[in-house]
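@channel sequence for tomorrow's demo:
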Amino acid sequence: MPQVGIDAPAGPIAADLDFDAGIQRLEALEAAAYRLIGTATCQIERRADRFVCRLTATSKDRLDEAALRVRFLDLVTDENLRLRIAKKTEGVRNVILALAFGALAETQDG
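structure tokens (generated this afternoon):
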């Protein structure tokens, strides 16, 4: 006898997100996709002047489509900020590394 009130498992939760390639860097999308491993897969395609990211949930906690979109957008935002900070601090980092390696070279020579 069939059980009443039990739904068959739904297909995988998926979402497509579309980004303007002139504004959004592929590097940030790839980093965000990497950070989703274990939660979802992400296939990134370039379509003319757009990046289309196809997300498919893989985790057992079954994020819904809206939660999956929000999670990915949060990660993309974070990665964009990391790239911006890295660019702004590149000169300072290079000076610090030069001083550190210069001091190390002096120690080994002396």
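heads up for whoever presents: The chain has a mean pLDDT of 87.
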